[in-house]
Write a structure and sequence with these properties.
About 70% of the residues lie in helices and about 5% in strands. By secondary structure, the chain is mainly α. The longest helix is centred in the first third of the chain and has 27 residues. It is globular and about 55 Å long.
């Protein structure tokens, strides 16, 4: 019986991603983001439970990747697609380019399954971080659209900026850029400096920016990872 518990949790992640996708297509980005967050919680616990119960299996690994691509690949793509559809774009195919992110997320997950270098960190942007970035960013943009003057000023350019950002995200997903993971072997400051700095800096971002602070946090995570990597190589 216990061998089915981790896979059940993984399926809850997948179902959360399906619900997130539904709300994304309905244009309700904040509910889509909510279910992406719920999916991320399930994603965090399925592997932990599998290790605690000693019931890890190849099928669980494959199921986890499938669920992750739905929740952290397809769902954020659908959020971007629906948001782009709200603009009057002369080229009707533009919003569909958002789904390229789902393909690159699948590629990133496949690479992760085969890459033995990612036991203590990541190579490339993790798909949950990418999904949280786009979900919170679109929610923030929808909130900011209440300021009609600001929104009207940039509305003609905004869809294309989002599209460029989508392509950059796709590259980051598969880029050979080491990124730190929030995994602690010890709770002391030494050896965990970057992780503690990151966690502490997240607090003011959330306090001042609210839900949009998640997008700022993910952007800061990428920047801090790149800076840290360069510093290590320089030393």
């Amino acid at each position: 019986m216990k061998k089915h518990i981790p896979n059940t949790i993984t399926c809850c992640n997948l179902i959360s991603g399906c619900i997130a996708t539904y709300w994304a297509f309905m244009g309700v980005a904040y509910l889509a983001l909510l279910f992406i967050v719920i999916g991320a919680v399930f994603d965090f616990f399925d592997g932990m439970v599998a290790r605690l119960l000693h019931v890890s299996s190849p099928i669980g690994k494959e199921l986890d990747s499938l669920a992750d691509d739905i929740t952290f690949g397809f769902a954020p793509s659908a959020i971007i697609f629906s948001y782009l559809c709200t603009f009057h774009i002369h080229l009707p195919f533009i919003p569909f380019l958002a789904f390229i992110m789902a393909a690159f997320s699948a590629l990133r997950l496949a690479k992760f399954n085969l890459d033995e270098r990612q036991a203590l960190g990541f190579i490339g942007l993790p798909t949950p971080a990418n999904a949280l970035f786009w979900g919170s960013l679109i929610v923030g943009l929808q909130d900011w659209s209440a300021d009609s003057s600001l929104f009207t000023l940039h509305s003609s350019l905004l869809p294309y900026l989002i599209l460029v950002g989508t392509f950059i995200s796709c590259w980051l997903l598969i880029a050979e850029i080491p990124m730190f993971a929030l995994k602690f072997k010890t709770w002391g400051w030494k050896g965990n400096e970057i992780k503690f700095i990151f966690i502490l800096s997240c607090i003011p971002l959330l306090l001042f920016l609210g839900i949009s602070g998640l997008a700022a946090i993910i952007a800061w995570y990428v920047i801090l990872s790149v800076i840290t990597t360069k510093k290590i190589k320089t030393n």
